[in-house]
Batch of 2 targets.
Target 1
Amino acid sequence: MRTLDTAAIRALYEKSRARHAEARTRFGRPLTLAEKVLLAHATDLDQEFVRGESFCQFAPDRVAMQDATAQMALLQFMHAGRKEAAVPSTVHCDHLIQAYVGAQRDLDTAIEQNREVYDFLKSVSNKYGVGFWEPGAGIIHQVVLENYAFPGGMMLGTDSHTPNAGGLGMVAVGVGGADAVDVMAGLPWEVKYPKLIGVKLTGKMSGWTSGKDVILKLCGILTTKGGTNAIVEYFGEGADTISCTGKGTITNMGAELGATTSIFPFDAKMAEYLTVTERADVAALAKEFADCLRADDEVLADPSKFYDQIVEIDLSTLEPHVVGPHSPDVARPISKMEADVESESFPPNISSALIGSCTNSSYEDIGRAVHVAKQASAHGLKARMPFFVSPGSDQIFETMKRDGQLAALEAVGAIVLANACGPCIGQWKRDDVKTGERNSIVNSFNRNFRGRNDANPETLSFITSPEITTAFALSGDLRFNPLEDELKGADGQSFKLQPPTADELPAKGFAKGDQGFVEPAEDGSAVEVVVREDSERLQLLAKFQPWDGEDLRDMPVLVKAKGKCTTDHISPAGKWLRFRGHLDRISDNAFTGATNAFRDEIGKGKNQLTGEIQAYPAVARDYKAAGLGWCVVGDVNYGEGSSREHAAMSPRFLGCEAVVVRSFARIHETNLKKQGVLPLTFQDPADYDKILEDDRITITGLAQLAPGSTMTMLIRHHDGTQDEATLLHSLNAEQIGWYRAGSALNLIAQQQG
Ligand code: MIC
Ligand code: SF4
């Protein structure tokens, strides 16, 4: 496997310094940190770098993939005609492990049930020089932080929370598999040059407030679309007071803003983290090149001149926050929670509490939760409902075990789950609540879209920090505010929880278990990758048809989605994760979470061929069989959330020609382009209202498709009347090439041979 050793990092830093000097002269101004990392990785400086406008090309340092998206990514990579991945790349088995009874048994079950997929991923990794992390080793972002992330680097990951590595100063971006394949195939990665949102942190946190609250507060301020096509760059003296892993929590959840990524400047906390994770050499290098790893002084002296938007957060006055239900931007300080529970009639009894995940399972997070748990134990108190812990990595788990944290959590009744995503992604076999039953859960994860955790649309999921989640677990009541209220112990005594404190990093270093890393073969050319023809888990990909040169005529509208339509609505996870390597099978989940704007029903619509109301996938398959292309109409921030390209590939596979929306989330829009579906936006967002259930849609202007061109949408209504709308697209010349070829991969394949 190609590795990125300190010599390579030094070379990158030297190149960065030279690039920065050149860029300062060319632009005639100082640089922010995000710009520095971007420019150091640009394929050249002769491109146009207009924020929020130009598409620019970069050469990332590495790629990381998790098992649920790696299957599709690697199935595509197999078509790219390469002997070996062009940059250091890894696969992490974390999403497919179902949480049920506890770590070891759940892991054994997962290994049994997913054997075919794990074997596939392991053999493809072995063949193409990709490092493989076994199930149980940990969640991708935690493992990356512990092993691969470094200040000033650039990484792509086939998971939207890849920006976690921004806590260690990296530009780490979540992408669809097709983008990762470009980089693994040695091609540049292209992305819209981002705008910059500067977040100035002042003061210092204390008491119950933690890094989580910075991002929960920011979600409330910027909303889930506020970061679209922007990098969130943190600075200010407050930033230096937050632990490296706390920074990781903040940048991880920047995904919830729709941001391209988030980043913190290199500081002493990062150096400490690098050192404790046995990378003191990288820490020393970063110190030597510290000027390349933070914004220029002139920028910091007058930030509003250099960022497109500035938000200021005073850590000294920041209260713990709780967000939810159903969206991470429904934020309020904990002191307002009780009033919201009353006014919104949220069920006050908490049915489950969950901590950990890729977002919040650092040594410090667990330590703070433990401090709270121990106070309760001293009064004989236990969690009042199932209380689950998902450690982020084997290393964290072993360290928790060694340092007594595990025992302290178990003493209050916690059930420790496998080092994996588990309930965060709906891999949660829940027996205590029936589907359809309204209930509240509290967790320290990052996303809380309807139906995500347990596939029950009536579960209200609230997100907060691990320490506040633990306090909730002990009280059992959503109206509880540990800053104000008392708990009653089993000993009859009332007591107030003291604000949690904990070490940021383990004094004795991290304990190591069986880390589960498999180094790939030096020469993998003889390795055979087997995909059984009758497999229900894996299916080799067939090429999508190229564009036929015609306009899109008389398309029925399969779905007009109302309101929030995230990737969890378009291609739900949970039980469907098992089909992530089988395009045909997984397509049976397409749009099953989308709200039908005509009927307010979920996942169903009218089949224009029969007049029947059916599940969307059945309708789509009928259209496909009849050779009838169809389209989708969507609302704002369509496709927010995950990087899963299945949300683009399934529609494409089922015959979707175009998706027309009020606005898109970044990753999903790119995924549609990559797979050969036209992503279009209404020039006038009000035109969304013109679309009726029995309409036929014609889109003209395809032959003239050019960067910046507009298209016309003819809307033929059932009663014979017609409407028109002007549509915009953001395809550049190269992306138009993808569309014409049928997909980006078709184009790569054509060019290779
Ligand atoms: C998520 O948090 O939604 C996931 C599951 O990690 C996804 C990836 C996937 O759908 O496989 C993501 O965030 O990209
Ligand atoms: Fe896994 Fe949840 Fe993190 Fe996604 S957000 S990587 S599902 S733990």
Target 2
Amino acid sequence: MANKAIIHVDMDAFYASIEQRDNPKLRNKPIAVGGNPNSRGVVSTASYEARKYGVKSAMSCKKAKILCPELIIVPVNKEKYKRVSKKLHKIFRKFSDKIEPISLDEAFIDVTGSNPIIVAKEIKKEIKQKLRLTASVGISNNKFLAKLASDMEKPDGFTVINKNDVEKILDPLPVRKLWGVGPKTEEQLNKLGIYKIKDLKNYDKNILIEKFGKKGIELIEFSKGIDNRPVEWRVKSQSIGEENTFSKDVSDINILRKAVNQYALDITKRIKKSHYLIKTVTVKIKYEDFTVETRSLTLKQPTDKLTIIRDTAHYILDNKFNIKKKVRLLGLTVSNFVYPNEPIQLRLDIDEYMRGTI
Ligand code: TTP
Ligand code: MG
């Protein structure tokens, strides 16, 4: 197979950098972009100045403030970040038609046939000029290595992993750095005495395949720096949802119903724009004691109708939960997307992606 040239771009502290760009008072300061304006929200992301104090994504704003008392918490403005994201993905499209968007601030770009160093420098330059933001880029001959590279010198990074350096870079890294290794797989590997990528590479192949099946084969390949997956458009987030932490814990079912109605309305608008239909409706409840329950219902017929989605959500709320405690957070999600005429069509249309409907 011909040598591929893959670039992975990931914006630095995306939400926080946009806020710092737009408000000079926030520049060079520890800031966090926070979930809820009330004190019960979580940190979506933190500026690099705040990360020095240990503030990071998914941490409660409360804990973040304890770690960094001078932290400035800025409310989330998702619409604004989406607008920036569209411009960002437009820049990517100038350099290749083989793009795999991963999230608002991240994508793979296949530039095989061009000099990836020159292209990546241009991409970074254009992001800086047009968006006044910095990105970290990783360059290699496959997706796994390119993504690993983009994370190595953040922020404002520019990292190339050449064929000859793969072993030297991968061997000492913890297995957690491998694609698809989360806390659970990490624990399973650790139990086998596998901690570093080198340990995995030298482990008995048959045992790994026996234990992990197809994933075992993939893990062995990744540990050697091999990854043959193509850069392709696809729906990554196969769900659309809304959730909110109430400013005060709720015991009144009517308040929950009202919230569900509002979510259903918002979600239906987004489904309609996407041209998809959905089959599964899920309600999530986080109680006052932080325990979480989710209940789903899969419809016989796919739909994009507000009444059906709303009524299904009410049905789940009334019949599939037994709410005995106060509710802290309520969420509604729809998933299991189908195209009206092509039931298993899940490929992402880039224009749809650019319109921000997915
Ligand atoms: P990331 O790329 O993971 O993080 P980042 O861009 O803020 O920082 P960096 O890449 O430099 O490490 O996520 C992109 C955006 O997605 C982030 O700015 C905010 C949002 N996000 C959340 O809302 N919640 C989360 O838990 C995470 C990880 C990200
Ligand atoms: Mg990022």
